[in-house]
């Protein structure tokens, strides 16, 4: 071994080749497992002697800004309105990629997951409304619409090679359409009193962001600065602030500044300069010329990619491993009274949500898929059958993150119903996850 030659773990990065979909599935799977652990931790804390301290911490005010321009919210609000804006930003980037170049880019290929997702949103809503047709309980109709992609992929990943990879791809496409539907529902139906002046500011920020995109600005900093102002304006407008993340994501450039011949020429030139610099001094620590050329190569390769894809890659890690687990810790802490658990689960709100997620998702996803194929509208992807569709329909009933988020909006002023809604979501997610896993484990061939 030469004096300055090292075998370092980071060298494996050159051999680790993952497609965006592979990377997405891998991180969402790990996030789903972490999400389960955090939900279990929150449930334990909420039913322990630390329950009072837990809720006191979440309700503590936290202020940012300077005198004369301050934002003061509880820790719970900062998590749900602030941190979750980052989650929605990543969701927006995923939506944009899937629509432009991913599973939803080909209309023929996208048709089945779109139809399945629509069925998986409509049927649960109808079931919930049938059980809760009036009163403020009706405000929770949007809760059973959503599928938690991290939880669902985590559960599917446990099956290993018993399921084809195309089933994971189908679930990803379905969940992306599902997320889009949930975002539209939040924007259109779960808004408070509208402030027109704040909406005007938000509209101006959005126009400036679009102008940056059309003007060819590719550095992320200007977008992030305007995005913060957009988030504040949305927060003050009455429209939920997390939607600023979606709007910001859709303005990030998706077109790469990529000329293959020029790229190859630049790389060849830099590699030649790196070799010449190395011959003069082998140590990259001592050789500033060598280090600067290596750094220029890394930055150039980074800049040649589409900014939206680069940001999605960078933001997935903190979102999957930090934002979503914190949201779970802050929102899954449900005190359970075992003596009245039966009446809690059979409460119209929790029963409507549980039935919507477990039964409604199954009927909507598997049923609409079956109808679409039988009517000749579309066809199943090669390697998949209707047993797989039933499994995905059951897994679709795992509705943790987005369902709890919508419940927080719908029952913000009804604490008792919010408790019932969260109980229904947790109960349904456990039933759907376990039944979906067992169904696929027993029916799917290796």
Topology:
Layout: H1 20-46, H2 51-59, E1 61-66, E2 69-74, H3 75-100, H4 107-131, H5 149-157, H6 165-189, H7 196-214, H8 220-237, H9 243-251, H10 260-280, H11 288-303, H12 307-331, H13 341-345, H14 348-374, H15 386-395, H16 400-410, H17 415-443
Antiparallel strand pairs: 1-2
Overview of the structural elements:
There is one protein chain. This protein folds into two domains: 322 residues, Na+/H+ antiporter like fold (Up-down Bundle), CATH 1.20.1530.10; 44 residues. Helix 3 runs antiparallel to helix 12 and helix 10 packs antiparallel against helix 11. It has 446 residues and is mainly alpha-helical. The relative contact order is 0.17. Strand 1 and strand 2 form a beta hairpin. The N terminus is likely disordered. It is built from 17 helices and two strands. The chain has a two-stranded antiparallel ribbon. Helices cover 70% and strands 3% of the residues. The chain is globular, with a radius of gyration of 24 Å.
- In CATH terms, the superfamily of the largest domain is Na+/H+ antiporter like domain
Order of helices and strands: HHEEHHHHHHHHHHHHHHH
Q: Count every helix, treating DSSP H or I runs of 4 or more residues as helices.
A: 17
CATH fold name of the largest domain: Na+/H+ antiporter like fold
Structural class: mainly alpha
Our Rg estimate from Cα atoms comes to 24 Å
Task: Sketch the major β-sheet.
Answer: 2 strands, antiparallel
The main sheet orders its strands as 1-2
Question: How big a fraction of the residues is strand?
Answer: under 5%
Whole-number average pLDDT?
84
């Amino acid at each position: 071994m030469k004096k300055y030659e090292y075998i370092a773990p980071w060298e494996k990065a050159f051999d680790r080749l993952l497609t965006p979909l592979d990377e997405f599935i891998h991180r969402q799977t790990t996030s789903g497992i972490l999400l389960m652990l955090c939900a279990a931790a929150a449930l334990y804390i909420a039913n322990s002697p630390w329950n009072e301290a837990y809720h006191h911490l979440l309700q503590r005010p936290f202020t940012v800004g300077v005198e004369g321009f301050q934002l003061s919210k509880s820790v719970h609000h900062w998590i749900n309105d602030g941190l979750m804006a980052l989650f929605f930003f990543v969701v927006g980037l995923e939506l944009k990629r899937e629509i432009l170049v991913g599973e939803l880019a080909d209309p023929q290929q996208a048709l089945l997951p779109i139809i399945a997702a629509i069925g998986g949103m409509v049927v649960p809503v109808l079931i919930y409304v049938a059980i809760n047709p009036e009163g403020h309980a009706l405000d929770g109709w949007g809760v059973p619409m959503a599928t938690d992609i991290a939880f669902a992929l985590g559960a599917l990943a446990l099956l290993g090679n018993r399921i084809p990879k195309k089933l994971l791809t189908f679930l990803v496409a379905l969940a992306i359409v599902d997320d889009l539907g949930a975002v539209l529902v939040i924007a259109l139906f779960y808004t408070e009193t509208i402030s027109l002046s704040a909406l005007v500011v938000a509209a101006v920020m959005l126009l400036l962001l679009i102008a940056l995109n059309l003007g060819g600005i590719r550095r992320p900093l200007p977008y992030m600065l305007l995005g913060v102002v957009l988030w504040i304006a949305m927060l003050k407008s009455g429209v939920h602030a997390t939607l600023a993340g979606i709007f910001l994501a859709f303005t990030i450039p998706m077109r790469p500044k990529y000329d293959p011949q020029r790229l190859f020429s630049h790389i060849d030139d830099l590699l030649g300069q790196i070799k010449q610099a190395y011959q003069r001094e082998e140590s990259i620590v001592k050789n500033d010329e060598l280090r600067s050329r290596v750094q220029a190569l890394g930055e150039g390769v980074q800049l040649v990619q589409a900014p939206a894809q680069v940001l999605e890659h960078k933001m997935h890690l903190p979102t999957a491993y930090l934002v979503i687990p914190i949201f779970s810790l802050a929102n899954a802490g449900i005190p359970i009274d075992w003596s009245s658990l039966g009446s809690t689960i059979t409460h119209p709100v929790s029963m409507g949500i549980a039935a919507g997620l477990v039964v409604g998702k199954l009927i909507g996803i598997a049923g609409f898929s079956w109808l679409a194929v039988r009517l000749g509208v579309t066809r199943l992807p090669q390697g998949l059958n209707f047993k797989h569709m039933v499994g995905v329909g059951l897994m679709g009933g795992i509705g943790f993150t987005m369902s709890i988020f919508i419940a927080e909006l719908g029952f913000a002023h009804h604490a008792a119903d919010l408790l019932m809604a969260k109980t229904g979501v947790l109960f349904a997610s456990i039933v759907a996850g376990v039944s979906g896993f067992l169904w696929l484990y027993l029916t799917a061939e290796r």
